[in-house]
């Protein structure tokens, strides 16, 4: 049994009916002591279980995002702005992006996490919109999540916070 499940079982939070169902599914579940532990002990046990190796990184797979990306893909430029002390470096990268049904931007991306850089309020995605042909649209992000397929990072999905244009 996974360490977090074991911590929950030992906490006494689950009713006996739930424990019986776990046993029916073939899990070796011991009956917790009749008196529940102190809330602080339960929280500490759950926190320790969450910190165990393998539970810190969550990899998300979203097959609908791939379909959305393929149906809505368009060309844009991702401007990455990095501030280091008094120095500001800006680099523009041509990219293909798509949109989810919720209006989030899907960008193919395979490298290390750049969430901090993309959500710094300066980095943005720029593209031409049919509605604003006279000037490009700039989209800034406040949240970035990585989408994996197996062990391979395939996309980042960026939640827009503001749009200029």
Describe this structure in words.
With 165 residues, the chain is of the alpha+beta class. The chain is built from 5 helices and 6 strands. Helix 1 (3-11) packs antiparallel against helix 3 (39-51). The mean pLDDT is 78.
Total of DSSP H or I helical runs spanning 4+ residues: 5
Largest sheet: 6 strands, antiparallel, barrel
CATH architecture of the largest domain: Roll
Sheet with the most strands: spatial strand order: 1-2-3-6-5-4
Q: What does the oligomeric state look like here?
A: single chain
The structural domain count equals 2
Mean of residue pLDDT values: 78
Shape: elongated
Q: What CATH first level of the largest domain would be assigned?
A: Mainly Beta
Query: How many strand segments?
Result: 6
Beta-strand content bin: 35-45%
Key phrases:
Pnp Oxidase, Chain A; elongated; 165 residues; alpha+beta; 6 strands; 2 domains; 6-stranded antiparallel beta barrel; single chain
Sequence-ordered SSE layout with sheet pairings:
Elements: H1 3-11, H2 16-24, H3 39-51, H4 63-72, E1 74-84, E2 87-99, E3 105-108, H5 115-118, E4 124-127, E5 137-149, E6 152-164
Helix pairs in contact: 1-3
Short description:
The chain has 165 residues and is an alpha+beta fold. The protein is built from five helices and six strands. The chain has helices at 3-11, 16-24, 39-51, 63-72, 115-118, and strands spanning 74-84, 87-99, 105-108, 124-127, 137-149, 152-164.
């Amino acid at each position: 049994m996974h360490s977090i499940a074991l911590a929950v079982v030992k906490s006494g939070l689950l009713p006996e009916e739930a424990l019986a169902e776990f046993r029916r599914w073939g899990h070796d579940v011991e009956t917790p002591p009749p008196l529940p532990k102190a809330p602080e002990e339960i929280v500490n046990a759950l926190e320790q279980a969450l910190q165990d190796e393998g539970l810190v990184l969550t990899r998300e797979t979203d097959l609908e995002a791939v379909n959305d990306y393929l149906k809505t893909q368009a060309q844009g430029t991702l401007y990455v702005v990095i501030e280091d002390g008094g120095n500001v470096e800006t680099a523009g990268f041509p990219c293909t992006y798509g949109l989810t049904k919720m209006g989030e931007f899907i960008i193919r991306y395979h490298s290390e996490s750049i969430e901090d850089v993309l959500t710094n309020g300066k980095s943005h995605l720029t593209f031409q919109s049919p509605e604003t042909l006279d000037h490009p649209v700039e989209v800034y992000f406040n949240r970035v999540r990585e989408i994996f397929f197996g062990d391979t990072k395939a996309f980042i999905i960026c939640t827009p916070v503001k749009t200029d244009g």
